[in-house]
Amino acid sequence: MPRPNPAQLAYGSATVILSALAMLLVSQARSGAGIAVVASASLALGLLVAVRVSGRRPSGAPRPVTGAVPAQRGAETADGGRRLAETSSRR
């Protein structure tokens, strides 16, 4: 299982703390069961936020081409034109 990155830890922790405080203030829970429900809900929300942070990608970022080798796609020349991929004469 991959380790969480710093953004996931930061957003997830902040979500758990802030949502727990907000829910405790709004619900005014005083019993142990009420506090347990608020704590589990805030943990679940923090986990959801942490998982969603990892999947984000800027909208302008290009998606990688799957299954394509850079030599097969052609290469850029110095003047910006495209040239054919070079083939190897070795066998």
UniProtKB/TrEMBL annotation:
Q: Which residues cross the membrane?
A: 9-27, 33-53
Extract the ranges annotated as region (Disordered): 56-91
Give the top-rank taxon of the lineage listed in the UniProt record for this protein: Bacteria
Residue stretches of biased makeup (Basic and acidic residues): 79-91
- Keywords, ordered alphabetically: Membrane, Transmembrane, Transmembrane helix
Q: What is this protein called?
A: Uncharacterized protein
UniProt organism field: Streptomyces pini
